[in-house]
Amino acid sequence: MTTERLLFAPEAYAAADPIAIVRRYPFAQLVTPGPPDLLATAIPLFFEHEGDTSTMVGHLARRNLHASALQACQRALA
Q1: Cys bridge to 39: 23, 34, 54, 74, which one at CB 3.0-4.6 A?
Q2: Up-side HSE of residue 67: CA atoms within 13 Å toward CB?
Q3: Whole-model pTM above 0.90?
Q4: Which residue has the higher pLDDT, 35 or 6?
């Protein structure tokens, strides 16, 4: 997994505390490349914490076509 910043956000608009934002608004659009075009699905989000590591977790229903199109290590935007 990469830690480089892939989203351009001017300093004035950068999220100082993304965990607090997700806690307040626990819903996002998951966007991934898929056949034949981009896929986007509204999903619930939350963070799991273990030591110094925070992981963003979302949920897709198995019968959602977006779920079956996901691949291991695929890049995604939420």
Answers
A1: 34
A2: 9
A3: no
A4: 35
